[in-house]
Design goal:
Layout (H helix, E strand, L loop, with lengths): L1 E7 L10 E8 L5 E5 L6 E4 L2 H8 L5 E5 L2
Antiparallel strand pairs: 1-2, 1-5, 2-3, 3-4
Length: 68
């Protein structure tokens, strides 16, 4: 498993804010779990990291930063 943070520099939707907005893990089979660090926290699952980037990347305003 690989742990990461979702770091947002701009918040086009005005919902999640900026900075570290979510924590995630990529499982060995490629699936991703993401927990949102907001006033209305939730956990979401995605079939791949590419899917997370496509949905939440906001044209480069959000980046995935893996833990060491």
């Amino acid at each position: 498993m690989r742990n990461f943070n979702l770091i947002r520099s701009l918040d086009p939707s005005g919902v999640s804010g900026t900075g570290c907005v979510a924590e995630g893990v990529v499982f060995s089979n490629g699936w991703v779990a993401l927990t949102w660090l907001s006033e209305q926290p939730s956990i979401t699952f995605y079939a791949s990291l590419a899917q997370v980037e496509a949905i939440h990347g906001h044209g480069g305003s959000t980046r995935i930063v893996f833990y060491r």
